[in-house]
Write a structure and sequence with these properties.
Length: about 130
């Protein structure tokens, strides 16, 4: 089992920045992908960003939705088993609960992930 704990959410004005963290614990050696999804009230859970890696080759790849490309950056600290989402130039429509997810075969599909965090609220005021 893998446990994911998100932190870093909060209230910020439009144009501001926030950094979300997702700390993984448990059997993390099997997690080859970590991602962020978000869900606004009354909407589906949408893909935001993902990072995958191959430890043997020290390679990682990142993926972003068009909505956040150029504004958000996903990264991972392997030593800490923690993924980060740096969010810049935030806009009111970025307001949502942000969820961390891990271990997937299709990074874009939420149903593909085996583990989820509880979510952290991000509110961007205009």
């Amino acid at each position: 089992q893998v446990q994911l704990v998100e932190s870093g959410g909060g209230l910020v004005q439009a144009g501001g920045s926030l950094t979300l963290s997702c700390a993984a614990s448990g059997r993390t050696f099997g997690t080859n992908a970590m991602a962020w999804f978000r869900q606004a009230p009354g909407k589906e859970r949408d893909f935001v960003a993902a990072i995958t890696w191959r430890l043997a080759w020290s390679q990682s790849s990142t993926f972003y939705s068009d909505d956040v490309k150029g504004r958000f950056t996903i990264s991972r600290d392997n030593a800490k088993n923690t993924a980060y989402l740096q969010m810049n130039s935030l806009k009111p429509w970025d307001t949502a609960v942000y969820y961390c997810a891990a271990d997937a075969t299709n990074v874009y599909n939420p149903d593909s992930y085996n583990y989820w965090g509880q979510g952290t609220q991000v509110t961007v005021s205009s």
